[in-house]
Amino acid sequence: MNDRTNRLTDFERKLLTIIYHHNKRGHLTTIEELELRTGHEPSDIEHTINDLIAKKFLSIEGKELIVRFKLF
Fold first, then answer.
1. What is the Rg, in whole angstroms, of the alpha carbon atoms belonging to the chain?
2. pLDDT digits (tens), the chain, 72 positions
3. Do the domain assignments include residue 58?
4. Which of 8, 39, 47, 67 has its CA at 20 to 30 Å from residue 56's CA atom?
């Protein structure tokens, strides 16, 4: 990991990892699926996704979340 990824919370890293693996398999990641896999409330997930978009780790293309900055 580099300095940029060191500033992410564990939850942010977890979301990025889940979304990245879903994209790699050609799946769209839903809020419900993220809620199930992380144990966090949908409002927390949406807030964190918006933060990750602002930090340029994620972007939205159509209805798909795209990981722009790989962790590994």
1. 11
2. 556 666 899 999 999 999 999 888 888 889 999 999 999 999 999 999 999 999 999 999 988 899 997 776
3. yes
4. 39
